[in-house]
Design brief:
Structural class: alpha+beta
Number of helices: 4
Largest sheet: 4 strands, antiparallel
Number of strands: 8
Radius of gyration: 57 Å
Helix content: 10-25%
Oligomer: single chain
Order of helices and strands: HHHEEEEEEEEH
Shape: rod-shaped
Strand order of the largest sheet: 1-2-6-4
Strand content: 25-35%
Length: 215
């Protein structure tokens, strides 16, 4: 066997690090590692890094959001309905009629003038619609003329002119004389009988005896 060069070894030559630029075949090559996460700044660090004005704005916005959420989750209870107003009092329950005495007795005719006071203690104004005597033989007229209105907390002076039209059936000595008065306010219209005591009974008896003794 003849040749011009040295004899080559039968086993292939093992690659060296210089032959493998990547170094993957090198026994000293370090394995690659995948990056799973990074050490990013914490939320508190980011918050403290914000300017004070931006932090104040963020806090205000957060408070608004929390308030809105609370209003949605916990709505306010409905406002309580105002209590019902009581109805106005009946006119007869707040009106007083008091006898004051005789104003005068004309000599020409069987007529007597009797003084009264009408007082409305409270509530809406009361209108005195009519005033009539209890007996058919007596004609009634008033000054001021009815109807007239008395305001709450005030007193109206009243003169009742009684004229004897006929004596038939008239009790000359009435024990419990009264006047029928029709009263009206915003709640009701009532006819109420006001009974007066001994002074009115004596004065009325005198008028009746003057007018009817001769008959």
């Amino acid at each position: 066997m003849s040749g011009t060069g040295p004899v080559e070894p039968a086993d292939p030559t093992r690659a060296t690090p210089a032959d493998d630029p990547t170094g993957t075949n090198s026994p000293r090559a370090e394995p690659n590692h995948d990056i799973i996460g990074t050490d990013s700044p914490r939320l508190s660090d980011r918050w403290h890094a914000l300017p004070p004005r931006r932090r104040g704005g963020a806090l205000a916005a957060g408070a608004v959001i929390l308030a809105a959420a609370a209003a949605l989750l916990f709505p306010r209870p409905p406002a309580a309905a105002p209590p019902d107003q009581p109805p106005p009092p009946r006119p007869s329950a707040v009106t007083d009629v008091r006898y004051l005495g005789v104003a005068g007795t004309p000599d020409a005719e069987p007529t007597g003038d009797f003084l009264f006071e009408v007082t409305v203690r409270h509530g809406p104004p009361v209108t005195v619609e009519t005033i009539t005597a209890a007996h058919a033989g007596l004609h009634t007229r008033t000054t001021p003329d009815a109807p007239f209105t008395v305001r709450s907390g005030t007193t109206q002076r009243l003169t009742v002119h009684l004229s004897v039209s006929h004596c038939t059936g008239l009790p000359l000595d009435p024990e419990l004389p009264f006047l029928d008065v029709t009263l009206r306010n915003t709640d009701a219209i009532q006819q109420h009988s006001f009974i007066f005591g001994d002074p009115y009974s004596r004065d009325l008896s005198e008028l009746l005896h003057t007018a009817c003794d001769d008959t």
